[in-house]
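Why predict the complex rather than its parts? Because the way molecules touch one another can change local conformation, and only a joint prediction can capture that. The input here totals 614 residues.
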Amino acid sequence: MTQKVKPMLGMGKWQYTKHEIKKYRQLYWMMAPFMLFFLVFTVLPVLIAVYYSLMEYNVLQSPKFVWFNNYTTLLLDDSIFLTAVKNTFILALIIGPFGYVFSFIMAWLINELPRVLRTVLTVVFYAPSISGNAYVVFTQLFSGDPYGFINSHLMDMGLISEPILWLKDSSYMMGVVILVSLWMSLGVGFLSFIAGLQGVDRAQYEAGEIDGIRNRWQELWYITLPNMRPQLMFGAVMSITNALSVADVTVALCGFPSTNYAAHTIINHLNDYGIIRLEMGYACSIAVLLFFLMLWLNLVIQKWIRKVGT
Amino acid sequence: MARVKRERQRSLRFAHTAFGHFLIGKHTNRSLSGSLTLLLCLTAFALISLFPVVFMVSNSLKPINELFIYPPRLFVIQPTLSNFTELFSILADSLVPFMRYLFNTLFIVTLGCVGHIALASMAAFPLAKFKFPGSEFISKIIVYSLMFTSSVTAVPTYMIMSRLHLIDTYWAIIFPAVSMSLGLFLMKNFMEQVPTALIDAASIDGSSYFGMLWKIIMPAVKPAWVTLFIVCFQGLWGNNASSYIYTESRKPLAAMLQNLSGSGVARTGVVAASALFMFVVPLIAFIISQSNVMETMATSGIKE
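Output of the joint prediction:
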């Protein structure tokens, strides 16, 4: 368990490992069912995708090995990909951090409230994420013709004389996408924060009050946040993956492809090649690059979170 | 310092009023002005958050002439249930009975969620609380797998499904849901918070690993698996299984309702009604689960 078993004298490293495996064999059995599913339906597809990223493969003909051709084309010859990278970065830089902090603050504020009010507000704030595509109503709000909710009201008020093409004019598209994404940003991370806050030991707060914690900010930094490290970690991973894989929202709002690729994201690009053009090898190489990008960001952010409350 | 004292006394007095107690509970280190500002902010955000939901509800109640009115209105003028009656008559007339679609969806949702929570918890417990050969490696793989986008694994997954002869069965939807790494990651993170002292005590009492998981860990991390249930439910409820299930009688509800939206402007009202239906069911599940999350945690009173 927690006590460390020291390698017995005269036991090699290999023998020691064998000893440990034997000691914990029940635990391995406990993990086995999930791991079996996980290997077949999650890990194996990823490995196949990585393998295809080195191939020229259009699903119909048998794959042809091309080394790193897909990657070099992607980085050097595909200007649309670079646009997609730029858009994804802009979106992720705003949606990721803002959504993360916002989720936490909201969860924390709600947690201060009595139980009934807390439940009601949790439901209200999570409501946008419940229905997978509730954001489609925004297409009606931002619709480009005079019948669009926002256009018609702005015109009535005399602020604009003709309808604005919110979803077709490249100067507005990104703004609308960011707005809608932020509206949906209270997702899984938010829920895990809410759940995590309920797990913080009440006695610690009482002790804190006696020890002279004067306001809620001090309480947050010295008691709440350090207790929430696992959830903060979870929320961070979720925000990174969500912020970098914005795609459905842009398609629903701006169409596909969007005007001048002004709202084209990496995942949009990937879907273009993977689903429409059936160039699987190329699509897989996009996924692999995106994977490394997320991995790197994750390592950076993990380092920050370890410093919380110190 | 004097100001702080005054403020504190005022908030203490405030906390003894009924409304004050309702607002800030038993805490004594809260300022009154702070509590009120927070409440105002929360209300504002709640309205923003609810706006499109209100739009959706009122759209589903609008008669066809109001759906295309100029200028468009947020609230319905003459609410009617005709969209719903039309939706129900379509559902009643469909070739495959509505109950069959509902059964398909419920079957997939139940098995997927229960299977995922059970297996993920069993796998998360060892990873969260013990150190054994391979534990760190497995934990890392779980996090990494979260970062691989699912849109590119779709084709390899399809190939695996077809090798295993699972195409056109419920299992093609259920198995990937069970193997999501998200649940394991969530459960593991929450289980790390459960004091190790509790587990040591159980181990001295001669409890098996399963016993520890069932009697100590799972009650302690109830908020986590309730959250996981919601995430899982939502995902499977909205899954239309379009690339895996072809036989009409095996398709889930989401696929059936999506067909409606593809059938023209005349059905705009029906589509609004069915969108509301798809939204309300997970919402109810969410409300029930949230109000069930226990206030008192098994961990309270135990120090690391």
